[in-house]
Amino acid sequence: MDLKSSHVSPVLTDPVPVNKSRLGIHSSLLAYSQQDSPVSPGKYSRSNSRKSTGSVDDVRSNGWLDAMKASSPPRKKLLKGSSFQIASIDFEIEDYCTWMLEYPSALDSFEKIVDLAQNKKIAMFLDYDGTLSPIVDDPDCAFMSESMRTTVRSVATYFPTAIISGRSRDKVFDLVKLTELYYAGSHGMDIIGPVSETLSKNHPNCVKSTDHEGKEITLFQPAREFLPMVDEVFRTLVEITKDIEGVKVENHKFCVSVHYRNVEENNWTIVGQRVHDVLQNYPRLCSTHGRKVLEVRPVIDWNKGKAVEFLLESLGFNDSDGVLPIYIGDDKTDEDAFKVLRESNRGYGILVSSVRKESNACYSLRDPNEVMKFLQLLVNWKRQERKHGKM
């Protein structure tokens, strides 16, 4: 299979979603889904929300607040003349260096990584936010640099490459703007991959389609039936959080992100409680925690790890010893992919972090700049191989 020639553009028109009547949408929120009808705040007003959040025991007792704080370490500021801050920073550096003994730098370990890639094909999987672009206060401004874009394009020239993001597939493509890649949005619930005759037999949610350039692709959306439900929840969360300064709610098609990065910490409990209250009406949806974000998603057995397995299968690498998958990511949702690679003992997870974190990854990189250096090393290594007649 010609891996390079199968790269496709992710822009296409999706099939029409199923009727929402099958989804068991809660009657108190049904008005939000009526076609061509404006959102009716009376169906779930902020006053009703406050009434239901008179106690924050739900969020505290079920661990949400602790998880929100754990996934959102505060930014530390160095105060001049403060020996406490200096001592604290020195301790953190020492702690991080100790942590790196367990998760060594992928840059320092590069020769070891490529030694194991000899006579194998590398398949590259990349998260977007915090991996290819820096984490910023406004998610809409998380742009990758032109040098990073050039680097990722070069990587895709030599290796099949996919971006697996929590963002919608269309949104992440708008940010990356590279047609040479495969894209998986909504934490892998919306995938464009190469055409494979066996995929439709193994995965009933696979359909053959074409992109805007007329190339054949495989579209896989295992949570398609949840589309109307996710849209309902998105509209509701926008309405009931608009009085909380700093909240940003995003619709990623198959999941909803509630960002609280710009919310005062003493209001995090309110954010968590309102998300919790909405989910009481949707037993088929759940919430997970990311870096200063709550993610609402369908309750299905699917995640970024499953997306990696699907893409490897679509590339013809399923159960193959001739491939070395490498996944680079920075967030909790990437742990599912790290875990798949670790447990199958067939590839490497690389965690992007400048602070100590427990992880299923094998190696670490500090930030997107180090990610770019690692990718450039891979490209240069492959160029040298080809120059000397090696495949």
UniProtKB/TrEMBL annotation:
Span list, region Disordered: 34-58
The protein's annotated pathway: Glycan biosynthesis; trehalose biosynthesis
GO biological process, one term: trehalose biosynthetic process
EC number: 3.1.3.12
Family annotation (InterPro entries): HAD-like_sf, HAD-SF_hydro_IIB, HAD_sf, OTSB-like, Trehalose_PPase
Hydrolase found in the keyword field: yes
Reaction(s) this enzyme catalyzes, per UniProt: alpha,alpha-trehalose 6-phosphate + H2O = alpha,alpha-trehalose + phosphate
Cofactor(s) it depends on: a divalent metal cation
GO molecular function: trehalose-phosphatase activity
Listed Polar residues bias regions: 45-55
Keywords attached to this entry: Hydrolase, Stress response
Lineage: superkingdom: Eukaryota
Family, per entry: Belongs to the trehalose phosphatase family.
PANTHER family on file: TREHALOSE 6-PHOSPHATE PHOSPHATASE, TREHALOSE-PHOSPHATE PHOSPHATASE F-RELATED
Function of the molecule: Removes the phosphate from trehalose 6-phosphate to produce free trehalose. Trehalose accumulation in plant may improve abiotic stress tolerance.
Protein name: Trehalose 6-phosphate phosphatase
Name of the gene encoding the protein in the UniProt record: LOC106767182
